[in-house]
Amino acid sequence: MNPFRDRADAGQQLARELSRRADLRGQDLVVLGLPRGGVPVAFPVAEALQAPLDVIIVRKLGVPEQPELGMGALGEGGVRILNPPVIRVARVTDDEVAAVEAAERAALLRRARLLRGDLPPADLAGRTAIVVDDGIATGSTARAACQVARARGAHRVILATPVAPADLVEPLRREADEVVCVQTPDALSSIGQWYDDFTATADDEVHDLLARAAARRSGAARDEEVVIRSPAVDLPGHLTLPAGAAGLVVFVHGSGSGRHSPRNRYVASVLHEAGLGTLLFDLLTPEEERDRSNVFDIPLLADRLTAATAWLRGQAWGGHLRVGWFGASTGAGAALWAAAEPRADVAAIVSRGGRPDLAAPRLPAVTAPTLLVVGGRDTEVLALNRAAQAQLRCPNDLAVVPGATHLFEEPGTLTTAAHHARAWFTTHLRHGAAAQSRG
User: Fold this and answer.
1) Which CATH number is 7-194 given?
2) Which residues of the chain have pLDDT under 50?
3) Which one, out of 114, 171, 370, 372, has a CA that is 20 to 30 A from the CA of 144?
4) Where do the structural domains in the chain lie, given as residue ranges?
5) pLDDT of 246
6) How many CB atoms lie under 10 A from the CB of residue 433?
């Protein structure tokens, strides 16, 4: 067994190391994860130190014709760090430097927008910056990140990582005021060998972790694991409720999915940016999931959704909220099935890659405004959604995401789908609530 189960475990071990440090208590700290793998490690560190979490995005300036040879680095805020000896030896002209910089600066801005969404970058001026990566093999990116953090105004820079080779720690101190490692082996052939699970971190996961950290720092009323109790069964869920939220979206997961679905967690983080709360919960118990027929039992899933909505209505914080339902795949069929009930407690519905045909007999009875979001390359499901839209009598729309297949795995397609959902729910939950109060 390796020292770290996964990046979250590595982050917790690193957090324990840093939490023991008396010199960090009461300091103005900011934790900066190197995307992508450094962010899941940095998240528990930021939580333990009660510090804000951000990414530190670095772009290497490679020598033309030898891009693997770095002649400098770029950071946000206009930071540019050059290595004159490399530029001189490689005989790179000012025009060539400018051309490489322009291309890398554009890439840096695209990356920052993709990972942060609408969140602003952290202000590092006068603060202690803790730069976190999931492991350090050569140190080139970590050095550049420390340089960028200092150039952005950090008063003190600490480089923290779960694992780095022992002979690299001292050289890294030339760029960082201090280096903190959990493991310092004599040799390190690869970082992944120190983890049981070193699965690549997706951009969506980075965005989700940043949004969750920001919600907690901004005074979210609630961000916690909950248990949804009903007469039939108790189901685990995760509730995020920003302060002042006017609406909350209940997620209805598709077949074989649950509250930990990375795609739905990403969509939830985009909704949080608009001030909307979310409830992600497991519709089935682990025992029930073993029977595949339950996954496609639309009336059963619809009953669980109705029970979860009734549960949140019974909470002190949930009685006043306008509720939306976000369904994916078979979960969308369950949402539409439940929405056809005469007393359905839902103000808006969004289906992502959904199977509305599974609720076909009930579609004309749905009254909540409904948005169907489908991938342009998901041809079979797109046809099913077009047929379903023709049966809907409620306010509705169909949004086709170009280039997307059923799971929206293509770059940028899930972000587009999430923005469609945010706009729909903002209109019918937040804005709808304001219109209702004026009436």
Assistant:
1) 3.40.50.2020
2) 433-439
3) 114
4) 7-194, 219-438
5) 77
6) 17
